[in-house]
Amino acid sequence: MAANFFAARAPSNKNNAAAAKHVVNPANQPWVEKYRPKTINEISAQEHTTSVLSRTLTSANLPHMLFYGPPGTGKTSTILALARELFGPDNFRNRVLELNASDERGISIVRDKIKNFARQTPRAQQAVSSDGKTYPCPPYKIIILDEADSMTQDAQGALRRIMETYAKITRFCLVCNYVTRIIEPLASRCSKFRFTPLDPDSASARLSYIAQAENIDISKPVIDALISTSHGDLRRAITYLQSAARLAGSSDPPTPILPRDIQEIAGVVPDGVVNDFASTLGVPVEDEGMEVDGQTSRKATNFSGIQKKVKELMREGYSATQILSQLHDLIMLHPELNGLKKSKCALAFAEADKALCDGADEELWVLEVGLKIHKAVNAP
After folding, report:
1. Which spans in the chain are helix H?
2. What is the pTM of this model?
3. Where in the chain is the domain with CATH 1.20.272.10?
4. Does residue 67 register a pLDDT over 70?
């Protein structure tokens, strides 16, 4: 009897050991996951969406949903936070199926894995979780299809019928970047929620919170650099912040994080380098409030001077596409250049973009654009 008892208990101990083995150390966890919002109220900036979804917590009426918008705006975090508040930590795994449609996007996945999960009938109950909280636990499950715009047309067509058949016991949430890639019959069955890029204030507040939680001293220029290089993608900004913190902490004593460090990590050409190149081409620029070369930022250069500056940029290993992209923004938003000069520069950028996409030589086309900009800017 004793032998049988210990033999029966052995798998349980093994399972406990396996469960303990998969516990992630918070110190080694990516900050994107570590600070992913746990509740609807923690979602940044998307007030319209969160206010509508918050009402579903008090009722069992949740429609099929379609979340769309740019990357890093909180689409996946929002539906995961909603699911946690509906089902609680104990029932989350039983009631929620999360699939990344960019990996599993064929019709076989829809017919097998999704259909089998959708047809299982859940029980309605008031779930008192192990954390002592009570969750609504409504009588349906949620299937989350991330990157749904990567699904094939056949898979989307098969999914349409499944959504109709099992609508009483299963809700679908499609998450995508491009809503136009979702077939109309599928999109019409969902309530659409548009996620917009985070505004600077919301992104700054979230980044400051993470920096404070990690005991990192960052200045406002560093936060501004994180926001400008991430272009409204909070996930990218948090990743840049974590990379910069690790680099700064690798030295003894730790070095302060500077805006230039963020730009280097992001693969962005430093502002001073772009401004110096623009100044060489004759574009009036200011570098951090100071005029280039003391009195004036305009330089009268010839072909040899521009060619020398382009060679310096190429030796530094900067991407031609990134250089031209930042130079384009500087010129198009320049307050002193008139419309005619900007239009001539825009044509030069357009030709270079097409040529670089076709595999043309980077140095030659940066030189070509530089010469055309110099000619346009210095024209009477």
Report:
1. 2-21, 31-34, 47-56, 75-95, 107-109, 115-118, 153-165, 184-187, 200-213, 220-230, 234-249, 259-265, 271-280, 303-315, 320-332, 339-357, 362-377
2. 0.78
3. 271-284+300-378
4. yes
